[in-house]
Write a structure and sequence with these properties.
Blueprint: H1 2-28, H2 45-50, E1 68-73, E2 79-85, E3 90-95, H3 104-119, E4 128-133, H4 138-142, E5 186-189, E6 192-195, H5 204-216, E7 220-226, E8 230-233, H6 242-255, E9 258-260, H7 272-278, E10 283-288, H8 296-310
Parallel strand pairs: 3-4, 3-7, 7-10, 8-9
Antiparallel strand pairs: 1-2, 2-4, 5-6, 8-10
Helix pairs in contact: 6-8
Length: 312
């Protein structure tokens, strides 16, 4: 009888252990088709090498984002607009018009992409959103055109040489020298000395972008410039994030541009996309081939490839 009782107790103990193990596995197994609420504060080498969608913290958005929002104002008080599409947590941020009227085709391309996204909302996968800031330097753009939506070369006045001053904002600051990555008060553009402002983010236009990025923490960024015909990785320091290289190669392959891991034609200080790198946000510069063409089809392909990557 004693042996039977001991055997029964042992059997009960074994059943209890098995129940505990099974319960623990059910609690800890992750469903990879369902997002987890745990967000890493710092990207790991493994996550950045495999996906651009897991490299930055995801910002919780309590309210529905406005389709068109004013994120700040220029020196003259002109609104800086952001156009938002989709409601996913993984945001692709697209930026044009940083150099105003000098690189007007980057703003024209951004407006064309806005029209494309309005007509083709299904290109944005579930869980992903897109924000387009078509003109970060509206005062510079207004010097060559009055357009505030899709426009073409016929709507732009002056030759390229005559449009040089419209690269800067109304404080005569080169906004692409005013960001907090290796900033200097005097920067270089080609062979010219340009103003980087009195301090990083001294200009209302760059402050507007900084505040937007701080609030929403995009997962990846594409900024357009002209003209060189290539895709350039961002870097602030001695190395480039693996996720940035993935972003660069994916966009370049789809858009059929040449990919470059570094812009080294001359010293760059206070650069916008390099500041994104400092913030550990994968970002690339796409330099259009000329100062006139928008190369819409190529860039649609590049954006589509990034959206597909973010959906995984």
């Amino acid at each position: 009888m004693k042996n039977i009782l001991l055997a029964a107790l042992a059997l009960i103990a074994v059943i209890g252990v098995l129940f505990y193990v099974i319960s623990s596995r059910n609690d800890n197994d992750l469903d990879y088709n369902k997002p987890t609420t745990e967000v890493p504060t710092t990207p790991t080498a493994t996550s950045t090498a495999t996906s651009t969608a897991t490299t930055t913290p995801v910002t919780e958005v309590d309210e529905k984002r406005e389709a068109v929002a004013t994120i700040g104002k220029s020196v003259s008080g002109t609104d800086i607009k952001a156009y938002h599409f989709g409601e996913g947590d993984r945001e692709l941020l697209l930026i044009g018009g940083l150099h105003g009227g000098y690189s007007w085709n980057t703003a024209a391309l951004a407006y064309e992409l806005i029209d494309w996204l309005k007509k083709n909302p299904t290109v944005i996968p579930e869980g992903v959103s897109v924000t387009v800031i078509p003109v970060l330097n509206p005062d510079g753009l207004s010097e060559v055109t009055s357009a505030t939506s899709t426009f073409a070369a016929k709507d732009v006045k002056g030759t390229l040489a005559e449009r040089t001053d419209s690269r800067f904002n109304q404080n005569n600051v080169d906004l692409n020298r005013n960001f907090d990555c290796e900033w200097k008060a005097s920067g270089t553009w080609q062979s010219k000395t340009v103003s980087g402002g009195s301090a990083p983010f001294s200009e209302p236009e760059t402050k507007a972008l900084r505040d937007y990025v701080t609030k929403y923490e995009p997962s990846a960024v594409v900024a357009w410039y002209s003209a060189a015909g290539g895709v350039y990785a961002s870097r602030c320091g001695d190395s480039t994030m693996p996720a940035t290289l993935t972003l660069m190669n994916k966009f370049a392959a789809a858009a059929k541009y040449t990919a470059y891991e570094e812009f080294d034609y001359y010293e760059i200080t206070g650069d916008m996309v390099n500041w994104f790198a400092k913030e550990e946000i994968p970002a690339i510069s796409v330099l259009l081939t000329t100062h006139e063409a928008t190369e819409l089809t190529k860039n649609q392909a590049g954006v589509t490839a990034l959206l597909e990557g973010l959906s995984r």
